[in-house]
Amino acid sequence: MTANPAVPDAFALMVMMRALNVESDRFAERFAALHRLHRTDLNALVAILDAGRAGTPLTPGGLGAALNLSPPATTALIDRLEQAGHVERRRSATDRRKIEVVLNEQAARLARRFFAPLGRHLSAAIAAFTPEERQVIGRFLDSGIKATAAARAETNGPEAGDAEEGA
Predict the structure, then answer these.
(1) d(C-alpha 106, C-alpha 54), whole Å
(2) Which of 144, 151, 155, 166 is nearest to 17 (CA)?
(3) What domains appear along the chain, each with residue ranges and CATH number?
(4) CA within 13 Å, CB half, 30
């Protein structure tokens, strides 16, 4: 029995995922360069945006944990983003003792405008798949995210440099 050449094997899929990651990074880096943002700044804005959409605004500590930053580095990051007019520190509506970092409307508008073409093109690509295929893609992406997180956790140990060759 021969393999179907139209069905990519695991290695081909990993190469394609890597290419997608590179293209996605290049697109995001274009936005960062146009707005004088470091990659960490951009990652922070995405984390803040995602947390806001999920209804769980980030505290400075939560943002630092999400980005694996020390408290001083997190403070410097938030200061930089605040001075650039992208975020604001606000008191929590549910616990006035807490400070939350939120994306301001100007930054949200800028991001929506810049990322609209990517959203349009990706939506069109996704729409070309049947609901059943999208379900499989969703399962694959979820599994891929979990596998990547597990591999990242493995590389946190002292023997991380000794890892076997992978993909």
Answers:
(1) 20
(2) 144
(3) 21-123 (1.10.10.10)
(4) 9
The model's pLDDT over 141-162, given as tens digits with 9 standing for 90+, comes to 999 999 999 998 999 866 555 5
Strands of the chain, DSSP E: 87-91, 99-103
In contact, 148 and 141? CB cutoff 8 Å: no
Both structure tokens of 82: 């605040």
What is the token pair recorded at 117?
A: 């073409």
In the chain, how long is the greatest CA-to-CA distance? Answer: 66
Q: Write the DSSP assignment of 123-167 as a string of letters.
A: HHHHHTS-HHHHHHHHHHHHHHHHHHHHHHHHTTSTTGGGPPP--
Q: What pLDDT is stored for residue 77 in this prediction?
A: 97
Give 40-79 pLDDT, tens digit per residue. Answer: 999 999 999 999 889 998 999 999 999 999 999 999 999 9
- C-alpha span between 142 and 148 (Å, rounded): 10
**Contact present, 103 and 114 (Cβ < 8 Å):** no
